[in-house]
């Protein structure tokens, strides 16, 4: 039984590679179990928050030298960049060639001094949503705080005014309506992780559920 299962998965990967190619790191561009879509499905828990940019704040706390709060104007004054990447949802759809505009995480972190014992980051968003990331993965140079997609401001159902983008993990880690980072000495599971989603979420390993 397992031989057939692994054989089927191997053939699926071969078909994916033949149709969509490989990445520079040797991974198939379309992860196993995923289907490509040109649409952008809307998936989230709870309602869409009503946010006023005049009062919007982004807070940083936990194991940091100084807790800080940034206004929308503060964020827009930071260096901006444009990044293009593929995204992969745990519900088995993938969308290629997403063009994001926003603040690279490494640029944002120039404003923050971490304590030496930080190991994890809890990402916070409006509505009480959270998701957890290891520090090394959070600091990936591909990650960003995005406020535009395809040259237009994010729509409210896709995370306006700002969302985190972590393209190397399933898309639930790219929290919508993000409004804070809490730096931690040890791991703590976020919202979906507490409800059975995998604690890491690598699409190429199909880390969907715990």
Key words describing this protein structure:
single chain; 210 residues; alpha+beta; 6-stranded mixed sheet; 5-stranded mixed sheet; 5 helices; 17% helix; 29% strand; globular
Strand content: 25-35%
As a whole number of angstroms, the C-alpha radius of gyration is 18 Å
Give the helix/strand class. Answer: alpha+beta
Task: Identify low-pLDDT runs.
Answer: none
Describe the structure in your own words:
The protein is α+β, with helices and mostly antiparallel strands and 210 residues long. The protein has five helices and eleven strands, in the order H-E-E-E-H-E-E-H-E-E-H-E-E-E-E-H. The strands form two sheets. Strands 1, 4, 5, 8, 9 and 10 form a six-stranded mixed beta sheet that branches. It is globular, with a radius of gyration of 18 Å. The chain starts with a helix and ends in a 16-residue tail after the last helix.
Question: Quick summary of this structure?
Answer:
Helices cover 17% and strands 29% of the residues. By secondary structure, it is of the alpha+beta class.
Write the layout of secondary structure elements.
Layout: H1 2-20, E1 35-36, E2 57-62, E3 68-71, H2 72-76, E4 81-88, E5 93-104, H3 105-108, E6 120-125, E7 130-134, H4 135-138, E8 144-149, E9 152-153, E10 163-165, E11 178-184, H5 191-194
Parallel strand pairs: 1-5, 2-11
Antiparallel strand pairs: 2-3, 4-5, 5-8, 6-7, 6-11, 8-9, 8-10
């Amino acid at each position: 039984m397992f031989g057939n299962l692994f054989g089927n998965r191997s053939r699926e990967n071969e078909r994916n590679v033949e149709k969509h190619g490989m990445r520079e790191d040797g991974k198939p561009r379309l992860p196993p179990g995923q289907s490509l879509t040109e649409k952008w499905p809307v998936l989230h828990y709870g309602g869409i928050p009503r946010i006023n940019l005049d009062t919007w704040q982004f807070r940083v706390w936990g194991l940091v030298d100084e807790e800080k709060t940034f206004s929308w104007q503060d964020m827009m004054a930071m260096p901006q960049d444009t990044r293009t990447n593929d995204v992969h949802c745990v519900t088995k759809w993938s969308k290629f060639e997403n063009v994001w505009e926003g603040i690279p995480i490494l640029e944002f972190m120039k404003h923050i001094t971490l304590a030496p014992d930080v190991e994890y980051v809890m990402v916070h968003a409006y509505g009480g949503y959270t998701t957890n990331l290891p520090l090394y993965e959070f600091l990936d140079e591909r990650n960003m705080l995005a406020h535009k997609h395809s040259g237009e401001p994010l729509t409210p159902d896709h995370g306006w005014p700002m969302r985190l983008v972590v393209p190397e993990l399933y898309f639930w880690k790219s929290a919508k309506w993000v409004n804070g980072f809490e730096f931690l000495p040890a791991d703590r599971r976020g919202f979906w992780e507490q409800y059975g989603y995998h604690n890491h979420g690598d699409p190429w390993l199909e880390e969907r559920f715990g």
